[in-house]
Write a structure and sequence with these properties.
The chain has 110 residues and is mainly alpha-helical. Helix content is 67%, strand content 0%. The protein contains four helices and no strands.
Length: 110
C-alpha cells in the first residue's frame, strides 16, 4: 500500500511540475519590436558604433527594418517579425558594444 501511495504522489508531482513551463507568453507586436530597434539604433548612432559594411548602402539595422517593412507590406507577418527581431538583436548588440568598450583605454596610456 505504501508503494502505491508513494508512486501516486511521485506521478502527481511530476505531472504538475511539467505544467509549469506551459504559461502563455505574450508575443511582442511588430510595431513594438520596430520601436525598440529604432530606439536602440538612436543610442548606437549617438555612441558612434553603427555596424555597416562598405558595400552596403544602409547599416544592418536599417537593412533589416526595410526587409521587415517590405514583408509587412506583402502581408507576411511572420517574416516581418523575424526581420524586425533581427534588427532589434543587432541594435542591442551595437549598444552592448558601446557599453562594453566604454572604459577601454590604450595599453600605452596611463
Amino acid at each position: 500500500m505504501k508503494k502505491l501511495i508513494i508512486g501516486a504522489s511521485i506521478a502527481a508531482v511530476l505531472t504538475l511540475s511539467g505544467c509549469t513551463g506551459n504559461e502563455v507568453k505574450t508575443a511582442a507586436t511588430y510595431e513594438s519590436i520596430v520601436a525598440e530597434a529604432k530606439a536602440a539604433q538612436e543610442v548606437s548612432i549617438k555612441g558612434g558604433h553603427v555596424w555597416k559594411q562598405k558595400a552596403m548602402k544602409t547599416n544592418y539595422v536599417e537593412h533589416y527594418l526595410a526587409l521587415a517593412a517590405e514583408a509587412k507590406k506583402k502581408g507576411d507577418e511572420d517574416a516581418a517579425i523575424k526581420h524586425a527581431k533581427n534588427a532589434l538583436k543587432t541594435a542591442n548588440a551595437q549598444v552592448a558594444q558601446i557599453n562594453d568598450n566604454a572604459d577601454l583605454k590604450a595599453a600605452w596610456s596611463k
